[in-house]
Amino acid sequence: MFVKKLSDTLITPAHVTGDAFESRRILLAADGLGYSFHDTVVKKGSTQRLEYKNHIEANYCIEGEGEVEEVSTGQVWPLRPGTMYVLDQHDAHIIRATQSDLRFICIFTPALSGEETHDASGSYAPPG
Fold it and tell me: Which residues form the signal peptide (predicted)?
């Protein structure tokens, strides 16, 4: 067993920020669990197009209001606390933080190393 705190992540390279987001990567591939666990904030007013071609991602909203759009169909779902969306088909999607910052608990499989950056398509490179 081991214990980690969000505050410990904030002082490491596992705390990644950008113009539209802040990702606090609490569990990573080095933890040996096969998945990674993130506390992520999408900043109010931002729009991000993402597509994880090499990972499956589950996102559980714990704060804020916004929406997620499935690019292939144009279908839009509202996001607010208690809502989960899962990218089980490597779905291209658009996240919009419309009313406030959005905060998610996210799980990626396979696990992220913590050093990934989004490529031009909004994806991460395959692991290893």
Answer: none
